[in-house]
Amino acid sequence: xxxxxxxxxxxxxxxxxxxxxxxxxxxxxxxxxxxxxxxxxxxxxxxxxxxxxxxxxxxxxxxxxxxxxxxxxxxxxxxxxxxxxxxxxxxxxxxxxxxxxxxxxxxxxxxxxxxxxxxxxxxxxxxxxxxxxxxxxxxxxxxxxxxxxxxxxxxxxxxxxxxxxxxxxxxxxxxxxxxxxxxxxxxxxxxxxxxxxxxxxxxxxxxxxxxxxx
Length: 214
Hints:
The protein has 214 residues and is of the alpha/beta class.
């Protein structure tokens, strides 16, 4: 499996394309603001002879999911997956888009749901879902074992030396801290943390150095 990062929109969201050995593709966070940004994904998909079968939202703040309809239009066979508790916020996408400086956009339809500890399989890609609230309702992290080591896609839950904001609606520092300590910090220390913004880190580094989790 290959993991390819694409940095999207003015909030510099990390969107990740996972490509299985047979070309099956899974997108984490459809954060593309416009057709120009989407074309970068399309080029990567084409260059890797991939077939996009699913996109998964770590959470539904506008900067992470604004491109869901664009992706669905380009790849109509791709499922759009999120935690059930994230759907109400997604339906308010345009309220938050306007506040965040983005244009109004259409919502993706045919949403599917994931649950805590569910295992998702796409060809040789196996993903475990962790429900990790505290930053946003229905926020999830996605854990994956690869041939090169363990990886967790943390969305906006855990960053390099930081954590997600908790001052937005549905946010709670205590809930977020519990999510990290009970879900992410139980993973192997060398697990690579691929964050929703900024640089990657490891579970071990964050256990030892993150000032918000002491």
